[in-house]
Design brief:
34% of the residues lie in helices and 20% in strands. The protein is α/β, with parallel strands linked by helices. It has 4 domains: 122 residues, Up-down Bundle (Butyryl-CoA Dehydrogenase, subunit A, domain 3), CATH 1.20.140; 33 residues; 186 residues, Nucleotide-binding domain of ferredoxin-NADP reductase (FNR) module (Rossmann fold, 3-Layer(aba) Sandwich), CATH 3.40.50; 115 residues, Elongation Factor Tu (Ef-tu), domain 3, CATH 2.40.30.10. The strands form 4 sheets. The chain has a 6-stranded antiparallel β-sheet, covered by helices on one side. A 6-stranded parallel β-sheet has the order 12-11-10-9-13-14, sandwiched between helices. Strands 1-2 form a two-stranded antiparallel ribbon. The radius of gyration is 27 Å and the shape is globular. The structure holds flavin-adenine dinucleotide. One of its GO terms (molecular function) is oxidoreductase activity, acting on the CH-CH group of donors.
Amino acid sequence: MNQSHARYQPGDPPKAATSIDYFGESVSDTNASRSLLFLQAEALDKATNNNDWSIHADLTVAPRTEYLHWLWQAKFVAAKNVSTVSDTMLRACGGSGYKTDLGIERILRDGKAGWVMGPSNEVLRQFVGKTTLMGMEVLDYWEQVPNHRAVHHEIKKMTLHQRKQLAQDILKDVETAEKGDAAKHPFQDSDFENPFNTCPPAYNNREFKTPDGVNHAPGLNPDKWTPLVLKKYVDVSDKMASFMFSLPNPSDHTGCYTGQYVIVKVNIRGKEHTRYFSPVSRPNAFGQIELVLRFETQGLMSQHFKALKPGDKVEFQGPCGGFEYEPNKLDEITLLASGGGITPGMQMIRDIMNNPDDKTKINLLYFSDNYTEILYREELDSYAAKDSRLRIVYTLGEAPENWEGEEGFIDTQMIDKHVTKPDGIKHKIVMCGGPTMSISCLHSLRSLGFPSHYIFIYGQFGTEQVRTVYGQNVQLSGHKCDNVLWATVGEKFLFRDAGT
Ligand SMILES: Cc1cc2nc3c(=O)[nH]c(=O)nc-3n(C[C@H](O)[C@H](O)[C@H](O)COP(=O)(O)OP(=O)(O)OC[C@H]3O[C@@H](n4cnc5c(N)ncnc54)[C@H](O)[C@@H]3O)c2cc1C
């Protein structure tokens, strides 16, 4: 008799789960989650006479609130279900579940990221536990009440030295907090897209002649859409490709400053969509602009780009913001990059490497998932081999045998080893990666004594991330090479801050 078809008897050793078992478990879990949600929806309808909004003319009527406790549970169970079902399905599909086209790994990643990064699920679990045991009145919705018991408990674990260090850090935070809004730049944070900006992004509308007598004008405009033709499309890794577009005239510069990003508009099924991109080409790589895109499984813009053919048109506007690099304003620039976050750094590296008169040193600490995902490795290595201004340290999630670079995410030890210490030089640290990378690197930088105003982060929430780690009223970097440390007198730092 074929053993695989033998009926399972109680007492037999547990058999390995099959795909059918996985599906059975996933369908049961999902339906349990859906049923809880359905019950809640039904209860909310009942409580409001089938969503009769007229009862809310009296603003004190809030009949749904008594279901809050149950709604937290429904949300918690649903979020947990996304994570466990996508994980189970991945196992059911074996190795092929990791193929990006299936979309499972994306959902798993997003589900797990939501679990870890969005504290909401963990907070919900706390809410449900606390209110079940102690009633709704113990809730501290906005985390306003410090938990002294937990604080004392943690402090007890510290050595005397660690306690002293913590006390000094807290005193520093209090000092900056007492300065209040006076420490804040009047323009900074007023532009959501460019929270570090100390003034609106600059536009390089200059027309100039090169020694060959050719006149160069800006090809893009920050206020008008310019259609650009796709010249070529080259895969740069499994998940990323480079797209080279022609500027309107072969002699055009982009009109951007090095480090700035642009906005792109496409029409997909009759609807316009826009996304920001950091070009990897230099503003003065005349006649062209190069973007590198990561293909997101369900990404609207990236999937549209994937289908583009040479000759197709895409509309561009820019510059829109970003760091504005200028030659010889800094002694050193450090780039902390992860995956596709190399794009603004690549632009700066190409710019500095193409300008022998620029004395600025550039230091790249670059994390990639694996060796094949290191973007522009050959080009980067060839620059570093012949130009002492560029120093590169690669770090890999999965390193091949005999790998001589670093391994794992960028951490305190790596920054300590590879980033020049804050010793009075004019230095900026430019970060581009995900929020998890930014926060973790910020903690490392702070613990190693790097001042907050050294640090520029690409992305909308960069200043918030700096404040989360350094304190609410700390001095922030501007978007230019200005407010950098330029001298130290004893223990006191002096700043040159052209932005204020
Ligand atoms: C300043 C700046 C510079 C940038 N520079 C670059 C750059 O140089 N290169 C680059 O690649 N990107 C860059 N980006 C990011 C870029 O703007 C886009 O956000 C990115 O390309 C994704 O856009 P998309 O339309 O392809 O994805 P979207 O459609 O916006 O989707 C976003 C995410 O949601 C997921 N998703 C969407 N729909 C679903 C669904 N139904 N189910 C499950 N998941 C779903 C997608 O898979 C994707 O992960 C930059 C962003 C900023 C702010």
